[in-house]
Design brief:
Layout (H helix, E strand, L loop, with lengths): L4 H4 L16 H10 L3 H30 L1
Length: 68
Amino acid sequence: MKPTESSQGDPTTPSEPTTPTNPTQETEEESQIKNPKTGDNIITNVILFITSIVAIGTLTIVSKKTRE
C-alpha cells in the first residue's frame, strides 16, 4: 500500500504556531502574569468574602447604635 500525499506531509502546518520545547524562565513568568493559577483566584474570592462579612457586620453595629 502506497502512502498518500496527505499522510506524508510535514506534521506541523505553517498556520500552527511553533512553541519551544523548553520555555525560558522569562516566558513562564510572563504566562503566569497573563493567566494566574486557580489558587490566586480562590484567595482573592476568600478575601472579598471576608471583607464583605466584616462590612455587613460594621454597618449593622453602626445602624443599631444610631437608633439608640
